[in-house]
Automatic annotation (TrEMBL):
Signal peptide: none annotated. Keywords: DNA-binding, Transcription, Transcription regulation. It comes from Enhydrobacter aerosaccus. The keyword Iron does not apply. Residues 16-76 form the HTH tetR-type domain. InterPro entries: DNA-bd_HTH_TetR-type_CS (IPR023772), Homeodomain-like_sf (IPR009057), HTH_TetR (IPR001647), Tet_transcr_reg_TetR-rel_C_sf (IPR036271). GO terms for molecular function: DNA binding. This is Transcriptional regulator, TetR family. Residues 39-58 bind DNA.
Amino acid sequence: MEVEEKEKSKGGRPRGFDRDKAVDIAMRLFWRHGYEGVSIAELTKAIGIAAPSLYAAFGSKEELFAAALARYEQDSAAFDLSKLRGAKSLSQAVRLLLEASIDAVTSPKRERGCMISSGLIACHPDHQALADDLGRRRDAMRKAIGAALRPWVDEKEAQRIARHLAAVMQGISIQARDGASSVELREIVDEVVAGLATRPAAAVSARHRASRSRSN
């Protein structure tokens, strides 16, 4: 997976350098191997430019990782919460969320797993700022899931369920990287959905209670 070799300009950067394609290549490498699992030499070889040109184009490996992460979030199909808007129940919403996550982390057109979940868990102290940024992104995802569940449960319960679902999705990502199939992972969805039946009845939101009353 390399940028096509073209006539080189000074510094080793090909004429007509395609920045978007370079970010896509870097994204795939970081997604597959994690931030610390990809060297500058591997990046320059895959992209087809010399190290000075990579630094001239992106500033640093850290900035290239940030660009790759932004591209991943932009293109990610795993976290499209708009799919939940048509759900008729909490159970259906949770099923839609987890099945979309499984499809994304097992798609043959994509790398296995989730770049945000596993791209930088353990790291050298010099890279702690990047790890903290990914942690904030995971936390934002969890909060967004909670907000998406508010039509069916109150705020406290929505965030409790969201934390559980975020943990499940991260586990799904790791198991997908380890080779678990889509069929195997969907068994987890059935277990999670079945467990929702045991949630406290008091957690049902006032808005949802009112909606049910009107429908009756």
